[in-house]
Amino acid sequence: MAFPYKHVLLIGATAGIGKGMADLLIDSGIKITAVGRRQDRINEFIKQHGEAKASGAAFDIADYKKAPQFAAEVMGKFPDVDCLFLNAGIQRKYDLAEFEKVDLDEWNYEMTVNYTSLVALTQAFMPYLKKQRQASIVFTGANLAFVPAATLPNYCASKTALNIFAMCLREQLKVAESRLKIIEILPGPVQTELHEYMGKAGSNVGMPLNDFTKQVMEGLNAGHDQIIVGLILDPTIFNELVDKRRTLFENVASMMRKRAA
């Protein structure tokens, strides 16, 4: 089973995991509309792949109140988009033992980019995607949504919130018998710009980007709706945790539906 979507709108496609996935998806014969803040990087991406395979749209996802306008403009120009790939994110280290020194504007910006903006984009694009014969929304989450790193409290909280949102969205769409599929990618550390705050050592944190994207593509082609790649913990223990949590979630969802009937 191959990844069935033909035109992916990929948020954060000009750097890091997003760029790696965009390149590989294009190599797989899928058209990409790249979204990022910087028009120059979008132009470079289109030049690299050619206009037949790549297009672009500049948008700062932190300005999430403009998401409906952005969605209308994009879908007006590219009505065949059948997959929204939400990948952008930032990661910052905080010392909670001295939380009084933390800049809350910076703290809230991280949550906005990693979670609130992606929820806003989901809401803005859903009416268009639900009209497609088949469509999907792909979220890039993190292993740390399940087992947080103490030094990255806000990043982990944002990814946990995104994971819960994706799970609930998938469940409610299933009940509504919607054709819209929800896919979640849960990476461990990957060698990207995300870890630049660590200095030179950050570039070597995690698995190589090419190895990561190939494993993700295997999961997408297999039709999985949850793809775990690059674990730094014992895979058996972690996968058991994820599976048990999902089973409990589905049991609670079923119980709530019965009570509401």
UniProtKB/TrEMBL annotation:
PROSITE patterns: ADH_SHORT
The keyword Plastid appears for this protein: no
GO molecular function: oxidoreductase activity
UniProt xrefs under Pfam families: adh_short
InterPro entries attached to this UniProt entry: NAD(P)-bd_dom_sf, Sc_DH/Rdtase_CS, SDR_fam
Keywords in alphabetical order: NADP, Oxidoreductase
Top-rank taxon: Eukaryota
Gene3D superfamilies: NAD(P)-binding Rossmann-like Domain
SUPFAM superfamilies according to UniProt: NAD(P)-binding Rossmann-fold domains
Family: Belongs to the short-chain dehydrogenases/reductases (SDR) family.
Protein name in UniProt: Probable oxidoreductase, short-chain dehydrogenase/reductase family
Lineage: Eukaryota, Fungi, Dikarya, Ascomycota, Pezizomycotina
